[in-house]
Amino acid sequence: MNRTLSEGLSLSYHLSISRLMPVHDIETVLKAEEQAVSMIRNAEAEAERRITAAKEKASEIIAEEKKKASEAAEEEIESVVQDARSAAETLSEETDREVGRIRQSAVSGKEAAVTLILRAITGEEHVLSGRDA
User: How is the chain split into domains, by residue range?
Assistant: First the structure.
């Protein structure tokens, strides 16, 4: 509908100009109009190309930012895992030391019990323990 109206107005314009201008001037006006239409179409096509390029660039930027965020998250996870491993190793070392102290206490307790039993059996007060012997 708009095209028909536009064409009708254009034809009306050309007819009114044709009464006022010589034929070669009308041809010049028509060529100028064709050039203007061509320039508009070229500008529209260039705008579409730029829009498409901008969308592609935006997609690339978004993908890169997602990748960076993912890498940062992976690094943070790795850091947390490393901290957890370090804490577990420290706890394991502390547990091993505590187990060693408990075992040493148990050995000392056994030695003391053996010494007391020997004293009780022999009736001697100065029975040497396994460590003192």
Answer: 2-97
